[in-house]
Amino acid sequence: MTLSDHLPVLQVIVPLLAAPLVILLRNGFLAWLASLLTSLCALGLGSQLTATVLAHGPQHYHVGGWAPPFGISLSVDAFSALLVLLISGASCLALAGGRLSLRRDIDNRRAPMFYGAWLIAVAGLSGIAVAGDAFNVFVFMEISSLATYILIAGGRDRRALSAVFKYLIIGTIGATFYLIGVGFIYMMTGTLNFDDMAVRLEGVIETRPVVIAAGFITIGLALKAAIFPLHVWLPRAYTYAPNAVTVFIAACSTKVALYVLLRFNFAVFHGNLLGHSELFSAFVIPLALSGILIASLVAVYQTNLKKLLAFSSVAQVGYIALAAGLTSASGLLAAMLHMFNHALAKGSLFLCVAAFALVSGDTSLKRLQGIGRRMPWTMGAFVIAGLSLIGVPGTAGFISKWYLIVAALEFGQVGFLLVAAIVVSSLMAVAYLWHFVEGAYYGTPPAGESSPMEVSLPLRCLIWVAALSNIFFGLFPQLPLALARSGTSALLQGGLY
Amino acid sequence: MKLLGLFNYWVFAVLLMIGLYTLISKQNLVKKMLALAIFQSAVFLFFITMSKIEGGTAPIFRAGAGEQVFSNPLPQVLILTAIVVGISTMALGLAIVVRLYEEYGTIEDDEILAMDRNA
Hints:
Radius of gyration of chain B: 20 Å
Number of strands of chain B: 0
Oligomer: heterodimer
Shape of chain B: elongated
Number of helices of chain A: 20
Largest sheet of chain B: none
Strand content of chain B: under 5%
Distance between the termini of chain B: 59 Å
Number of domains of chain A: 1
Strand content of chain A: under 5%
């Protein structure tokens, strides 16, 4: 075996082993550097893994050489690879761009611990993406959640503490519901391995425990994924977290829960439960639609830029859930594409917000009046990423909205209503972003703060790289499209072994 | 008799609901953490019950013991892991409660929210 055969497990092990070493460093800067290097390493491994998956199909890894269904297996298809890229990419972006912001938010004495927690979060999230069985997904989910709570509460804002307590309660309820569902499935099938489960469920399809399991798992994961109206933990957690942490979690944490939701519902239940498509659509589509419309509307009336973007995230999770709720191959394709593109757009937007906060010290819209004239470069990047969030042609957001609309039209008569909702909420996205952009360009800055004051050149470059990647993947969407296509077929065909 | 045969499952459901109800209805953060512990314990009981077979023993092969009935050890191992996860969650949750008390001087959820709103 060469090193490249071990790629799936290295994706988890590298950040997991680096975490305690980072804690030992006892110096804020060194710990930050080590975390950034580890994240870059994870991104490198992830790219290599993605290339292997695209070239040779899904990869399987037997931990310790024990074959499934008895041993622990990791399985990586294109959908997992997409997630791995998102997680490691978001971590690199947030750490590289958040250096100054984190130095301001995190007590230097405790910084190594904080970065240790950061790497554990990366390891946990990557673990969910590569795990091949339901119980390992639960363990990794709890590892990443516990680490994320620490990251959110790690800043100086005391409101983050009550926000994170709520997140902890709701997150644990979600994970426990998921565990109950897994228990019911284990009762009926005697296995935890996803692929094995899909095969063995065939014998017990119409039994009530399986239906109950599907319900518990779907609700538990919907809580974690912040699907409206189970999103109550999200806005405050995103708003009061340290700015760099928001960049990281906004880009990947809800996506990972959505990933498990899709994996369970489509790889395991879809082919086995009679009427699963109808039930899943009937449950998810109304929630997704109300999320898209209501959260966008609430975003229009926010007075804090971070909270505005957080509500926009709830709406965007709604798009992904809506696409998945169509239960067609084209719908899943749109869901995966939107996960990727939304992570790009939100990551860039929150990075700009972190830069604004460095200069103005606050993210309330009032304090950010006139910021566009003070920080023209950062503001330009914000507008580009904002256009991608709205879905203007030429940006990445347009690609996924296009596929979403195509999938909705295939859905039948309600398709037109769905498309109407998508268009209306895109207009609301214009409204809530304009609410900020107008003040930023034409508003009067707070007294004594009118001189131009940009952030440092390297940070500006990074912000622009992030913003331009939205345009790049809008013009050349081959990579996410290839991953989403291959991921969709792997999910629907199942039977990886 | 069937009702009694499912006794553990009834306890599971009742404990689960006690935990969930307390989580929603109580404002005291320590009580919320206790409720979370009850909620999770219910699930532990559920897993352990499912693995138990009447007359089943621990899966240890003994020479010359004849035909033996074993209980499934796997759910018990899973729950060992889940208990560890539960303890970590409890530790972190209580640590956050301590920090909240340091910052706000109270551990009542509604009072903390009111102080946030007025700030």
